[in-house]
Design brief:
11 helices
């Protein structure tokens, strides 16, 4: 298969204008990001070679090399041995998720995170209501069954609660929403663990109410059930 490369002159200003002073590695990354935004680079394209970036941006090879390593860790590019560095067609699933770390730094602001969940959960659940397949509904039901069994043995953990929400996220069939939602859920693990110790029966009841409305495609019922669930969870945050 032939490899189609853009010539240096075919790249826009993002990858041909020398950088100004600043954190050089981050500036190189910013230029590549800007090239993607401007459609100068697209998924599947090979980026300019290390030598070309060094010359065009007026930076050292070590800075370019470090920038590529960071982009590779974030799942943005992949290095093809003997061919060059290419923008990935899709983000890597095992990529470093910098959003997690950014949100972790802010997690001490409980109200901010609570506001985020109150805004985001109804939206993705309503999308799941429209898009869920029979297989999706069966998967959500299984998380409720497993949680109920764990409660009988007094072995419930946050894992059982999160499985329910993640199953709904996957029923949206939107990779970006799934990724953002799962990132958000990671930060709620501790507070959900508290709710599973203090109000596990309430959590199970809330899950059943949300799922009933979702299965019946009752949008108003979904929103009402999520509001009740949010109030229960907020009580646990107050206790935490």
């Amino acid at each position: 298969m032939s490899i189609i490369r853009k010539t240096p002159n075919s790249f826009g200003n993002s990858l041909t204008t020398p950088l100004k002073k600043g954190s050089v590695v981050l500036l190189v990354i910013e230029r590549i990001k800007q090239a993607l935004i401007n459609d100068e680079l697209k998924p599947g394209d090979f980026i300019p070679s290390e030598a070309e970036l060094t010359r065009n941006l007026g930076v050292g090879k070590s800075s370019v090399r470090e920038a590529i390593k960071m982009l590779q860790a974030m799942g943005i590019v992949e290095v093809k041995r003997g061919q060059g560095t290419r923008i990935r067609q899709h983000p890597s699933e095992d990529a470093l998720n910098s959003m997690v770390f950014q949100m972790i730094l802010a997690k001490g602001i409980t109200q901010d995170l609570f506001d985020l969940r109150k805004m985001f959960e109804p939206a993705y659940t309503l999308m799941a209501l429209e898009r869920a397949t029979d297989e999706d509904l069966a998967r959500i039901q299984r998380t409720i069954d497993v949680m109920e069994q764990a409660l009988r043995r007094n072995e419930q953990t946050s894992r059982h609660d999160l499985a329910f929400h993640k199953a709904i996220l996957h029923a949206t069939h939107n990779p970006l929403i799934i990724r953002i939602g799962e990132t958000m859920m990671e930060l709620f693990d501790a507070s959900i663990e508290t709710s599973m110790r203090t109000l596990p029966d309430v959590a199970l009841k809330d899950h059943k109410a949300i799922f009933k409305a979702l299965r019946e495609k009752d949008a108003e019922g979904v929103l009402a059930a999520i509001q009740v669930s949010s109030k229960s969870w907020e009580t646990c945050l107050t206790y935490d």
